[in-house]
Amino acid sequence: MGNKTSPLPATLVLGFAGSGKTSLIQHLSNQIGTTVEHIHSGSEELGGGCICCSGLKDLKQLIKDLLIDRKSEKIECQQLFIEASHETDPIPVIRTIRQSFSPGSIFLKEVITIINAANYPPTDAECYLVTNQIFFADKIIVNHCDRATDEQINKCYKHIRRVKWQPIFNATQGVVNTNDFRVSSTVEASKSVSTVISFSS
């Protein structure tokens, strides 16, 4: 199935500021053999092919524009990463993607939550969002383990286990062991472009 007709796989990446989301996305892009390229829209363009948008309405419009450009072959995108800001509650984002677009055009392949072990535990104000980000994750990564104490890492693991029994992957600077952790890929080897949307709720 060609690029313009196959549904676009999307990966939602959650995590607080400094957790290592951008480094993780670059690592995952390299892992599945994609390179990040710019797309052009009315929103602010960031370096490395990222698009910054604010609010669900902007996110919805950016995805819509991306799908139109992809279908018309104006761009060649095989993978979408949505990088959410630290204060993002995953529920509205997931709902927007699943209710606003048909599975034949785009589908949410997986949700990845990355946690900064060196900044653990979260404040009381952050605890609800951290818990939600863990609960809705298909994969959970504990990052910056090289900078965290054993006590911080243990507290991080205990919090995750209280919320969800899910495989946990340790990382340093967003790099995980590719023998243990592999992102699901539907990318064709001959078409190796991924797009990143940086989303701020």
Structure characterization notes:
The protein is α/β, with parallel strands linked by helices and 201 residues long. The chain has one domain: P-loop containing nucleotide triphosphate hydrolases (Rossmann fold). The chain is built from five helices and ten strands, in the order βαβββαβαβαβαβββ. The protein has helices spanning 21-31, 56-71, 90-100, 124-135, 150-163; strands at residues 8-14, 35-36, 44-46, 50-54, 79-84, 106-116, 139-143, 168-172, 175-176, 193-200. Strands 1, 2, 3, 4, 5, 6, 7, 8, 9 and 10 form a ten-stranded mixed sheet that branches. Mean pLDDT is 79; it is low at 38-51 and 185-191.
Brief digest:
The protein has 201 residues and is an alpha/beta fold.
Structural class: alpha/beta
Number of strands: 10
End-to-end Cα distance, whole Å, is 34 Å
Number of helices: 5
For the record, what is the CATH homologous superfamily label?
A: P-loop containing nucleotide triphosphate hydrolases
Low-pLDDT segments, ≥5 res: 38-51, 185-191
The portion of residues forming beta strands comes to: 25-35%
Mean pLDDT: 79
Number of domains: 1
> What is the CATH architecture assignment?
3-Layer(aba) Sandwich
Helix content: 25-40%
The major pleated sheet works out as: 10 strands, mixed
What Rg do the Cα atoms give? Answer: 17 Å
**In CATH, what is the class?**
Alpha Beta
